[in-house]
Design a protein that fits this description.
By secondary structure, the chain is an alpha/beta fold. The protein contains 21 helices and 11 strands. β1 and β2 form a beta hairpin.
């Protein structure tokens, strides 16, 4: 590249920075390089496929405009993922295929070594995992709508994101759990975006699936030690969808990494769809360590919060479609009718936007009722917990919860315990081993015997059948 081309590129970057703003430029363009200028086309490169696709979809015209201000003859921008240099690797018996290595510039101007597979993906997947799972630029704190059900989770996530290297960690790990579409991933990615804005900290966001893939690939490519050391050098490790973490060796490695980071004063943030005690597939040691931090539940979205989310999504859509408008009565209707989760709310706004733009019609209440009718789902039944069953059964039979969990075999305890186990099997999705564990560490065969016993008695004993139905009604109210 000639000096004149480099000078032009510097001026183009300056124009781009002033056009999109410092934050957007740092997020998307800081790692863009000029490869060559040929006739009417400019060849640029970025380090990842995700950056390439995002820039092409959202900023291609702006980049071209900035170049044309310097070189009017330019009519085409070619964007590619940076070409790689093949790195020499030691020859190992049964070694995987060679890896392509390239050095990319991070947004904080520190070099970051990235490995990519040459022919066989597992060869470099362990280090590829350290690139993190893809981040959605919309999922920031600025776009997160705070309500009564998520105030504590939001405040805890902000405190983690705003921390500095060396600061004492107040709660570790931070464990956030909620149902589908209630904002867990949004909060975790917001922590990652905000944390990486500080060049002193390294924040890594991984889904449980990416963590598993990276660890298994590291074992195959004999780079497990490097994988572990790299993970433990992270300042803030963010793991999403922990409920999908499978495999004894992977769970053991996760436990070691978790302990190493916490013991070193590094922050860990985790999200799952249930509390630690309900993660049946995880080792007891992992569950115990997770429960020892701050466990926060994000509850169902209230109507006020749903309305706030709808208004936020309309405002975001209006940034690209200035004429798009959703009347207040339509927003009120959507907030009342769509109660399931935030993704359904976003889907409703997308449908109204598409219908309005494609048919060139204003948004009306009739149109909204027609377009979103399949998003209006019946109210979900109450989620019943084993602790609730034990409490209600103990009160019904005038025994204590500790009696139900004890080894006592007296008649006044055995029957309530069997009823509670039966209800736990019929009213929850917990497995027999998990139910046994929650009833004082009993074997799953004991639970199966209790379930079959009560099933047989309910069919013959009218009084017991009425008691069980009464207990079910109490639990479902």
């Amino acid at each position: 590249m000639t000096n004149s081309e480099q000078e032009r590129w510097s001026r183009v970057k300056g124009r781009l920075r002033s056009t999109v703003g410092e934050d957007v430029y740092t997020s998307w363009f800081a790692r863009m390089d000029l490869e060559s200028v040929q006739d009417e086309s400019v060849h640029l490169s970025v380090p990842t496929r995700f950056l390439k696709s995002w820039i092409q979809a959202h900023y291609a015209e702006r980049v071209l405009t900035c170049w044309q201000a310097e070189m009017p003859e330019v009519h085409r921008i070619d964007l590619s993922v940076r070409s790689a240099m093949r790195a020499a690797m030691p020859v190992v018996k049964d070694a995987p295929a060679p890896v392509e290595m390239r050095r990319a510039e991070r947004s904080d101007n520190r070099p970051a070594l990235e490995l990519r597979p040459a022919t066989v993906p597992p060869a470099a997947a362990s280090h590829d995992a350290l690139g993190g799972s893809p981040l959605d630029p919309r999922l920031t704190f600025a776009g997160f709508v705070v309500g009564r059900s998520n105030t504590l989770a939001h405040a805890a996530a902000r405190q983690v994101a705003e921390g500095r290297r060396g600061d004492p960690v107040m709660f570790n790990p931070l464990y956030i759990h909620a149902g589908v579409g209630l904002g867990k991933t949004h909060l975790l990615q917001a922590v990652t975006w905000a944390g990486n804005a500080n060049p002193e900290r390294k924040v890594l966001y991984l889904t449980a699936e990416k963590f598993m893939y990276g660890f298994v690939a590291a074992l195959k490519s004999q780079t497990a030690l490097a994988f572990k050391e790299a993970l433990r050098g992270i300042d803030v490790l963010v793991i999403d969808d922990l409920q999908f973490l499978q495999g004894k060796s992977t769970q053991a490695e996760f436990c070691h990494t978790l302990n190493a980071l916490i013991d070193a004063g590094r922050q860990v943030v985790i999200a799952a769809d249930r509390p630690p005690s309900d993660l049946e597939s995880l080792d007891d040691r992992v569950r115990s360590r997770l429960a020892g931090g701050l466990v926060v539940e994000m509850g169902a979205l209230g109507e006020d919060l749903r309305l706030g989310i709808l208004k936020s999504r309309v405002a975001a859509a209006r940034a690209h479609h200035a004429s798009f408008d959703v009347p207040e009565p339509v927003l009120d209707y959507l907030a009342r009718a769509i109660t399931h989760n935030g993704r359904d709310l976003e889907g409703a706004i997308n449908r109204l936007l598409a219908h309005s733009k494609l048919n060139n019609q204003p948004v009306t209440l009739d149109m909204a009722e027609r377009e979103v009718r399949d998003l209006i789902r019946p109210q979900e039944p109450k989620r019943i917990k084993i602790e609730d069953i034990q409490r209600v059964v103990a009160r019904q039979y005038n025994v204590s919860r500790s009696d139900l969990l004890s080894s006592r075999r007296t008649a006044n305890v055995v029957r309530p315990r069997q009823v509670a186990m039966y209800l736990a099997k019929t009213l929850t999705l917990r497995s027999l081993p998990e139910i046994g564990r929650r009833f004082g560490g009993r074997d799953h065969t004991t639970v199966l015997h209790a379930v079959r016993k009560i099933e047989a008695l309910v069919g013959k004993d009218t009084a017991l059948s009425e008691e069980v139905e009464s207990l079910k009604r109490q639990l479902q109210e």
